[in-house]
């Protein structure tokens, strides 16, 4: 599974088979007992335990069940498998409490994010530039898994302003938009609603005119590159009709 990170720059979660059956709707983060993560959300870290795994915990906060994401020189992703058509809009609320002051999402050395929500897609191989397609084909062959050909990530970043967009420094198949940036206050809830097709067109539109099938939704937090620590919350992540 290291091939996914070393050659393709993908979160390790997408390099692993999610054992749960994809659902027709996103499951809540919190299981019905209110004390654990819902099993549809599968945690993963870096291959071969190259860094500690970030902590994901379902907690009560001001009377609401939320997901707490904590990093300490660590890496982690929660992935929810998906199949079939998705509604147009993904919505959630998030709050950054402790930012990563040394992170720089435009460099490999600083490629950390205290809060991110990602959508993974099955973009047609014929639409992908030759070199990137070759790397993806190799990664799929070595891992034995149908890795996503496009990943769209929404970030809360503390260096760049909202609206900053680009490609992950490790892989052009992973692209991002900063929704809350250096101007955003910490310790406050912010609501987000994103039309996935419009954002895909912004970041991948020169390759594919239409939104490909969605294969998974993920949330994550990492500070393994900058060796920092962070804390954030995510709540009410789901599709809107």
Task: Give descriptors for this structure.
mainly beta; Jelly Rolls; 7-stranded mixed β-sheet; 241 residues; disordered N terminus; 12% helix; 5-stranded antiparallel β-sheet; single chain
Rg computed from alpha carbons, rounded to a whole number of angstroms: 17 Å
What ranges have pLDDT less than 50 throughout 5 or more consecutive residues?
1-14, 16-23
Average pLDDT level: 87
Q: How much of the polypeptide forms β-strand, as a percent range?
A: 35-45%
Please identify the oligomeric state: single chain
Between the first and last Cα atoms, what is the distance in angstroms? 36 Å
Major β-sheet strand ordering: 1-4-11-6-7-9-8
According to CATH, the fold-level topology is Jelly Rolls
Largest sheet: 7 strands, mixed
**Tally of DSSP helical segments:** 3
Total domain modules: 1
The helix content is 10-25%
CATH structural architecture: Sandwich
> What sort of overall outline do the alpha carbons produce when their principal axes are compared?
globular
Number of strands: 12
By CATH reckoning, the class would read Mainly Beta
Could you explain how this protein is built, in words?
The protein is built from 3 helices and 12 strands, in the order H-E-E-E-E-E-E-H-E-E-E-E-H-E-E. The chain has 241 residues and is mostly beta strands. The protein has a single domain, classed as Jelly Rolls (Sandwich), CATH 2.60.120. The strands form 2 sheets. Strands 1-4-11-6-7-9-8 form a 7-stranded mixed β-sheet, with helices on one face. Strands 2-3-12-5-10 form a 5-stranded antiparallel β-sheet. A hairpin with a 2-residue loop joins strand 2 and strand 3. The N terminus is likely disordered.
């Amino acid at each position: 599974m290291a091939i996914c990170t070393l050659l393709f720059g993908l979160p390790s979660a997408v390099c692993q088979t999610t054992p749960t059956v994809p659902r027709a709707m996103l499951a809540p983060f919190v299981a019905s007992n209110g004390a654990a993560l819902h099993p549809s959300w599968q945690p993963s870290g870096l291959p071969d335990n190259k860094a500690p795994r970030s902590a994901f915990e379902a907690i009560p906060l001001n009377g609401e069940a939320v997901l707490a994401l904590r990093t300490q020189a660590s890496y982690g992703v929660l992935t929810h498998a998906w199949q079939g058509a998705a509604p147009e809009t993904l919505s959630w609320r998030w709050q950054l409490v402790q930012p990563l002051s040394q992170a720089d999402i435009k460099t490999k050395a600083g490629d950390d994010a205290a809060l991110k929500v990602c959508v993974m897609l099955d973009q047609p191989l014929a639409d992908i530039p030759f070199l990137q397609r070759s790397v993806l084909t190799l990664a799929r062959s070595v891992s034995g898994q149908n890795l996503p050909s496009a990943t769209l990530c929404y970030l809360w970043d503390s260096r760049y302003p909202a609206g900053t967009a680009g490609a992950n420094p490790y892989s052009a198949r992973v692209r991002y938009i900063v929704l809350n940036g250096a101007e955003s206050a910490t310790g406050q809830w912010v609501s987000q609603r994103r039309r996935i097709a419009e954002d895909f067109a912004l970041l991948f539109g020169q390759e594919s005119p239409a939104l490909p099938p969605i294969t998974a939704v993920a949330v994550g937090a990492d500070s393994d590159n900058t060796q920092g620590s962070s804390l954030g919350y995510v709540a009410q992540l789901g599709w809107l009709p």
